[in-house]
Amino acid sequence: MLAPTFKLRLKQFSIVILFIFLFWCSQMTDALAAQPKTCRMGTYITALRDLEPATKAFGADFWLWSVCPSKDLDPIKNIEFVNAVKIEKMYNSVTERKDKTGNFQAQDKVYWTQEKIKATLAHPWDVRNYPFDRHTLKIQLEESTFDTSAFVYAPDLKNSRYRNKMRVEGWRITDFQITPKTSLYESTFGDPELTTGRSEYTGMDIEIKIQRYKVITFLKVTAGVYAAALITLLSFYFTDSGFLSSRIGLLSTAMFATLVNIRGMENILGRTEQLTLVDKIHITTLMYIFCAVAASIYSHWLVERKRAEQALKFDRRLCFPLFTISFAIANGLLIFQAILRG
Questions:
Q1: Burial of 131 (0-12, 13-18, 19+ CB in 10 A)
Q2: Residue 245 maps to which CATH number?
Q3: Residue 156, exposed/middle/buried by CB under 10 A (0-12, 13-18, 19+)?
C-alpha cells in the first residue's frame, strides 16, 4: 500500500495539473472568442460589357456567394460595391448545407448565400497606348457594417473564376484573380465600440486583366492623319508655275484634315488630359506639315531667283526622301513604344 504522504502529494499534484488545464482552456476560449468571425467569399464572372473609355466605366454581370458558419452572418447583405456607378441585384437565396468540403472545422452545417449582380463600375481608363493598351478591371467589394475586429472575408480562391466561353468584342482576357484587402479609415463613423479614432474594414478586389487585340480600329482612326501625311509628301512634286499657292492650298487641306481627325478621336476615347499614341501621331504629322510649308516657301524663293533646277533637287531629292524616311521611323518608334508599355 502507498504511504499516506505519497497519496497526499499525488492528490496535490493532480489538483495543480487540473488548475493548469482549466486555466489553459480558459485562455484558449478567450483567444477563440477574440478572433473575428469569417465567411468564405467567392465570385463567378458571367459577362463583361460596355468597355468604352469614353464612358470612364465598364459593365459586368457576376455571381457573388458566401459560405458562413452561422445564419446570423450575412456579408452579402452588408457588402458595399466601392467603385460602383450603378448596381442591380437580380437574384438572392440563402440555403442551409452540409459542410462536406470542410470550409469550417467542427462545423456540420453552413449557410450558403448567392446573389446575381448586374453592375456598372467606374474605371480610370489609361488610353495613352491605345490601341495596344492593357487594363486591369476591378470590382471592389467591402464590408460595410462590422470592422476587422469582428468580421473578415476569406476568399474562395478554388471556386472563383470567369466563364470560359465569355467573349468580349475586341479584347482578350489575360488573367483573373481575387485578393483580400483591408481598408483603413481615419474615422470610426460613430461606432461606439471603437475608441481608437480609426477603423478597418475587410474587403476583396476582383481583378480581370484584359488586352486589346483588334488593331483594325487603330487603322480606322488614323486613316485620315496618314492620308494627310501622304498629301504632304506628294506636295513636293508640284512644279507648275503657280506651285506655291497650289502647295500651300494642299498643305492647308492636309492640316485641316489632321485637326478634324484629332477632334474625332474624342468620340472614341473621350476627353483626356493624357497624351495618347494617336495624339502623338497627329502632332508629329502637324509638325511635318509645318516643315513642308517652310520647305515650299524656300523652294519658291529659289525659283524666283532663277534657280529652278536647284529647287527641283531640293524638293525631290532632299525633302521627299528625308520626310518619308524620318516620318516612317518616328511613327514606328511611337508604335513600338506603345506596344511595349501597353
A1: buried
A2: 1.20.58.390
A3: buried
Q: Are residues 175 and 318 both part of a single domain? A: no
Whose cell is 492650298? That residue is: 249
Does residue 13 form part of some domain?
no
The burial of 31, by beta-carbon neighbours within 10 Å (0-12 exposed, 13-18 middle, 19 or more buried), is given as exposed
Q: How does pLDDT run across 242-271, given as a tens digit for each residue?
A: 566 777 888 888 888 888 887 777 777 777
Per-residue pLDDT at 181: 92
Helix (H) or strand (E) holding 228: helix 216-234
- Claim to verify: residue 134 and residue 283 sit in the same structural domain: no
Judge whether 5 lies within some domain. Answer: no
For 281-328, write each residue's pLDDT tens digit. 999 999 999 999 898 888 888 877 888 788 888 888 888 999 999 999
The range of the structural domain enclosing residue 199 comes to: 36-212
pLDDT value for 191: 78
Residue 74 CA, distance from chain mean position? 29
Residue 141 cell numbers, joined: 467589394
Q: Is residue 191 part of a domain?
A: yes
Note the pLDDT tens digit of each residue in 120-160: 999 999 888 888 889 999 999 999 888 888 889 999 999 99
- φ/ψ of 187, rounded to 5, equals -160, 150
Give the H or E element holding residue 12. helix 4-34
Other Cβ atoms closer than 10 A to 182: 14
Structural domain count, the chain: 2
Residue 66 near residue 134, CB atoms below 8 Å: no
Same domain, 164 and 47: yes
